[in-house]
Amino acid sequence: MKATIEHLNKSAKVINAATNDMQGTPYWNSCKRYIKVYFKQNDIFEISLPNFEKLSGFNRDNAKKMLIEINKDLFAQK
Length: 78
Hints:
Elements: H1 5-17, H2 26-41, H3 49-56, H4 60-77
Helix pairs in contact: 1-2, 3-4
């Protein structure tokens, strides 16, 4: 699977537009997996919240939630 910024932005736009909290839903989890693939393909090992917001298209709240989950997954692997 080739991860593109366009697909990431499209997913973020859907999550941002949702009227309910998307965290933990299958769509959220597939987006999270996609972000991990994008990071790996582009050798991104760390990113600030403002830069992640710009890259992904997530609003501040969703960007923060997503980064926390991704980091939590990384720590669980160690």
